[in-house]
Records
---
Amino acid sequence: DLLKFIGAIVVIIVYLILVLGKRDSVHSMIAMSGAAVLSVGMAIIAGFGICFYFGVYFSRLTNNIPFLLLGLGVDDAVVIVSEYHRAVRLADKKTATRESLLRATAEHAGLSIFITSFTDALAFLIGSTTVIPALRNFCIQAGMCVLLIFVFQVTFVMACLAYDWDRSSAKRYDCCCCFKTKAEEVDMHKPRGCCFVCRTSCLKPELLAVFLRDKFGKFILSTAGKVVTLVIFFGVLVGGAVGLGSLYKDFKLEWFLDDSGSVNQLLRLQSENFSGGEQFFVYTKDDMADYYAIQGELEALHADMLTSELIANGEFADWHHQFLIDSQDNAACVGSMAANGDSTPSEATPRLFTNEAKYWECMKDWLEGGAGTRYTGNVQFVSEGCNSRVQQGETDGCQETSALLTMTDEQRCAALSECDNFQASCDITQGIKAARTSARLALASTQTGQARYDTMQGLRAMVEGHNLGDAFPFTFQFMWWEEIGIIDEELYRNVGVCVAVIFVVVVVLIPRPRVSIFVFLAIVMSIIDVLGYCYYWDLTINGVVTVYMLISLGLAVDYSVHIGHMFKAEKGTSEQRALAAIYRIAPSVFNAIFSTFLAVIVLAFSTTYIFRSFFKVFFLVTLIAGLHGIWFLPVVLSLLGGDNGAVDTIKEIEIQEASGDDPEDRKEEQDHAQ
């Protein structure tokens, strides 16, 4: 896991250098790329430290948080630096100060990343209300770290930008700030090449922004483009809705194991050649110590299990039933037994004892030297003297029952071969403190997660249907099957609450109903699509995938909110505002999508279910939610977002500069900036 994370960091740093920096030795932004990644590390350390201090423990799911934060932190850094570049471009070089530039940067970038960080953190913290401990701890840790990401972005990263302005204003190299360039003019929007190697003659500045505006933006905002967009996204929504309706619950403990590990290979071999249902036990407790009084109930439960479709044929070892069968073949015991109701005595319906003293006497003899010796490990008596065996004529213990429980039947028989008697202090008539009966489930009743949960509930209902006190069925796998029973309710409840909170936050922070309502629509559509297409990629509802789906809510918010926020701030007709929003923020959104993808791509080659599922969900959310943000939302806003006064002429100047033109007179630009 650590090697994967290191690999993701290296890839992200290289990408940040290419995205944030200019092809210039002074403005290469290499140091700022390192600062952006360092802020993520600071948030991880601080967030985990705070959570550990308050007792929120570390789990295997927590391993995914660094990959998540790496993508989110880089997204915020890209937005901040993009707005910083814009502020520098619009500023008067003679009067600009670092304070004025940072103030202009924070005006839009600060609010934009605050909206996304706040909604992300809120989604996680709401998810922490789940009853599943591992999921609750993950959400608390992720929510805390996301909040700290925002804090370090607007403090540490912004402070680094201030120092970067001082360095670049002094014409010092980015990689080696001890030295200055001899160039008379250093303008980040007129790169001079980097390290004497990377020239810029073939790479115009703001190439991505110009492409998104002139090619992509103009196409999707044309009449034909709008029709194509609406048809495509409607089709995607239908596919997502169908997949969401088909999504089902399933999980197996072995999914946590390495695919290439020897244990998983053994389990596959066993499944292919020796598959069988899960073994379980029915336990009775000391509230039913008087087994003599409940013989009939025990036999009724035995009969129900034999005829149940949940139990494999012949895979039922009931020590008490076997005791009754052997006793009716024992001349010393059968005289104190009578038929069970109207049934004819047989192995299926043995006689029941009618004399309590004889019942306990025959049981003691049966367990001491009869066929019942192999069941000794399944019974614990109230009298402690009955729970250990001694040799004939000896007084010390031979084999404790606790040791017998860990043995196979053959080992137990060998260990008890010389241990024929209970201790002298044994008073078996005090009753049985605890006992267990084993059985094996039918394979057909444990094929899917829902089937396993229904089987577990069916066994509980079967046992509770008899007057056996607090008797209960149990196997270790029940802990995972229990989760399957509630995980879908937990998922949909958390999704519903998060969507409601996202709606409130978007409406409050983007106080333009004609904008905020369509931002919310894009978010909801992307959530439906992400959840639905998980089904087509062989993902099921379980504790692991539920965590990742809740994460996707936050990321789905980010991409659409950035576009909606910039659309609100733009001037002109609805179509002009949509195109301006694409030019201004879509490059940052695209870089955020791509950087998040780079942060998790290393997990696509993982041999563990947890990391492969993480990659699948994040790939879907970056692709689907990202396209809803930079493609679907601008089209909808251009149709229904409304006009907002006259177009801002600064946009025309920015577009000219992005195309490589240098306006002769900047006075008009400066007046509008004022």
Note: Confidence is low (pLDDT under 50) at residues 390-397, 649-674.
---
Amino acid sequence: QPSAEKKIRRQWKSFNIDRSVSAPGQISDINQASKIGGESPCDSPILEDFFSNSNLKVNGESYGKVIPVLKSQLAEQGDCQSQLDLSRDLLIQVASDDLNEDEKLELEERAMYWLLRAGEQGSEEAVEILTGMAATGRGVTDQNYVDVVNITSVPKNTTRANFIAKKLFKKLSKGNTFLTSLQLSRLVNENTKIPTQPIKNAKCSQDDLIENCCEYMEGDLPSLDQSLHAITAESGIRDVFFSGFFTLSCILAFYIHQVVTSQIQVSSSSLLPIMVLAVTLRTREVKKKEQRYKVWTNIFSLFSEYLSIHHQETCFSSKQCVSPFLIFHCLLLLHPLVYPDLVFKTSLSLIVVLIVGSAASISVLHKPSSSFLLFMISNILVTWQADQLAALLAPHVPAPYCSADTVLLMWQVGYFVPAVLLKCGREMQAELQTFFWEDLTLRIILMGRAASYTPIFIGSLGLCSLCCMAIKYKSSRTSLILCLVMLLSVLTVTRPVKPATVSQLSWSDYQTSCLADKLTAGEQATCHHFTGLTVQWSGVVDRVRILQRRNHVEWMVDNLPEVVRRRTDLKCLLGDQFGSCESKTSQAAKLLCKTRTQQELEEEQKCHLERFSEYQYQVLLAMPGPLFGKGRTVELVVGDELRHTVLAIKTGQTVRTVGKLVSGVGREEVQINVRDISLDLLQ
């Protein structure tokens, strides 16, 4: 028995090579086991043959030989637990002191063989044991090192996919080099009819099946699913009638009818629900794909007891729901930003859209939890009595924060924020979508309007959940980034920063109250609160100077090696050359031009990168003083966007500035961060 087992081990090259090449006659029951591809021990012909042996005597001596022989035969047949037990027994024998080194090496090699076969089936315990043995060089030989390296370095899912696919192919191919999609479908439904029309990819080889099994283990729908679905799918008039395309076409036809009949105001209020409905109908495809993925789960689970069905289905569902729900949440966020004041008016088309959208969102739910159902029912009551609840809270909550919208927002936050942390991503996305449709329906029917913050809240929370799913499952990350960039761009364009209102604080009042020589500590602290106010003051220019200069391109070019700068002439390539000296007016400009245009200078020294420069200027204004006192100076900090205005200002001119005041407490000068500056023509 050990010598025959050793021959089989050495002929088993790798798990990408079929082990059925073992020569006949090595172990009596190997061929019988290989016929059925490793069926369960309860249906094993070895067990039937073993227990039907009339010559077997269960006495004190022979009974101890029954279990090892039976275990060995079950292990050869493919029983993973028997393979693990055999490897443990062999390693226990290695620990005996009665064996010499050659015998121990032989036992370790045999144990490694059974561990490799168990690990190939996906046994984590077997992989862990053989990894530890391989780290110390135990049981690794010139014949099995390829298998050891492969099974310890290849991802666990890939190893398991190879085993399942080969086991499946061996069972169905019946000696052929291919199997058909019809054979696969018969594993799920024995009554599948033979197709009468050509089907694409109806045949697949063992390598194709391994690739498809790997796709399944990675949480993707196998590429053979199209041919399998074409055989198993049963379509009829009902499927066409309830399809998303037919439903949306009918609603769009009614919407176009409204536009044609000049009901513009009514049709505009229906535009957002129609767009959201189109996306909601698209999310129904996720559930259909989940059902098709479960078909493959049922097929592969027949050939592996280590297949984590829940993990695989959760991974697939999360990957599939990222893209459609990403569009859904982006639409919810974009519409309030573009049309913040849109008012929904009840119409027949809007009611139809609400009914269809609510039904479609409910169909996307997999198995709604009892907590979500309770929340949805309670939400109807809370929305109905929102005004009364706000009135009850009015004595305890400040007036600006006590309203029906605030009550509903806190109600939503109280449920969904913990739910995002506790529930899986796919379930959470479906619940957010269903809640949006219920909330929109209730508000239009009961309150006659839709709240602008509800889509923003649902969209923001949904995007956060999608970000976590995209990172965890490495799915649609590029699309997610593009959507976030688009949202930020729209937010920047549609929500420009409104200029701050100019306060009534005059220079004379501020000087009298906050710039006196003898201010108490309390008065100084009070004056500090004027910081941040937008003021408009006028004064005489005392001095203009550059406060700061930034040129990042110039800094990067100057830090390059001198050899690179000279050979590439980057300054001249990116910048400009010093021009003609005749157009210069100031003495400094003429001197610079004359110096920089000398013929003997290198080309790099004749160019500049001034176009990339940014400046921050300081303009000192002499402000009028009190009747019996000295005047004060105000420091203006001006950005580069007002460069041309600052360059045109001359000493002695009266200018008017608008900007944010920075308190001058503890300083001799008052500072203003300038937003606008111009010549005061009234002076």
Note: Residues 655 and 679 are 4 Å apart (CA to CA).
---
Amino acid sequence: LLITVFLSSSYNHINAKEFRDLSLHDINKLLYKLQGPHAAIHSTHEALHIHLKHTVCVPLMMRITHIQSLDTYTTQRPQIVVSGEIHGDERVGPSASVFAGQLLVWAADCVLNDDKTACDRLISIHVSSKQMTWLAFLSTRRDTFILPTPNCDGYNRGVRTDGGVDPNRDFPYSRKDGNCLRSNTAKLFDALFREVTVQILVTFHGGMAAIGYEWGTHEHPRGHDTSPDNDAHHQIGAAMSQVAGGFRKERPYRSAPINSIVYPVYGGMEDWAYAAGWNAELLHLCSGEKPDRTPPPNRAITFLVETSDRKKPLSSELGHDTDVLLNTHGSNDRYGGHVPRNTRLVLSAVDLVRPYVCLDSSSPILNDVSLRNTQNAGVHWYVGGGFKVHRTWLSWHRFNHSIGALPASAWEGVVENMPPPSPPSQPHEQWLTGHAEEHRMSHGLHASGYLTGAARWSWDNPLAPSPLEKDLFTISSLYLPPLRSLHPIDRDRLRRHSARGGGEGPTVEAEFMLVAWAEVDSSW
């Protein structure tokens, strides 16, 4: 269930703070301030057990999730990596990645820990209570790794290279001459990808404005650069462009394969992150590597984000921290800029790393949990983290009282470890007129037929928000089916169905879980 925080504040007074180009010291200081129950700050060389050579700085990595439950959580949370820069003179990504991390951590601290300072910060920049709930969900139901300055030496000096090496030509994919893994930056990501099952990688660059995805090597020339995951790449890239939007004279990002929109390279990070784990033909040994070294398991859906034509935009183009989650920015917008739009882009990627279903707190069933008023007992839910909902439905499951003793964070694993249900065979309209016996399934009882529709990011859905509408992240498709199985006769049938040994069984009072399911984006 969604947890909603009710907050009030006057939005008449606007105290917008301008973003600025941050020094390495500024960034590290901001990261350490976020250390707490929802963010762990690590020195990369210690966390990843790597030796960094010839460096005067150590990149920091922020891990955002529900830290306390990491050791006890039985199902792995989806993992996403955000790289603020890989070339030290490309400056938008670090600020955007840090601010996205701040929003995620502040929201979790506010909604889950009642942290007044965090709540006040979010209210002051006009983040609504619904947006806070959404951000807190992303904070605790994903495992997000943000590295604002992985090439900290280049960033500190304002140069492209890391120790004289271009880090984005230093990966062993499509690099045949053995000149790879020489830079600290490349070594850092090689170690990270061996430790983390990265599902989405967002890597920020500068020098043009575009979103690129696979392929980006010379072996996949333009016109023949469609990846096996092109449907996912195309849809997510388009969503990132939509949610980032434009401002003043800046148009929304073009989104296309890297070879078609940027240019191919040897030893690039993007194709290495996507294919090194399954396309061994183009993975080569680096000088000094042992021939029997295990290849990295990489298969991340990767996006190269070229943030702006200027690698270091003017201060007046960076934007303000107010109304960042409202994609209303047009030619006359006061607060739009490179940092706000790329902050939104990061948050969309964090959302899209895995589909999810949320029961809405306005559901009538929540106001009468005993189900005495069956005429008004409806359930509202929406599907996020995807585009097309092929089928979504409800089911009842017997409630195990031992589950109730678990902390709230453990429910995540309880639901995800439930046996996959068999979906209903009928649309909901037909299901309402069907026979009761047809609604049984092996691990529970159907509570509805199936519905089809659109998830949060389906822009062509009339119920989904336009990129230019206010409160972009709070409007979603709501499904409101009349629940046939909430009637008393179906409650009795559910008791009999779950009685030990089958048969009629005693019609005693029992407790059940109502679970919403969805099949999403089956074309990927």
Note: The longest strand covers residues 388-398.
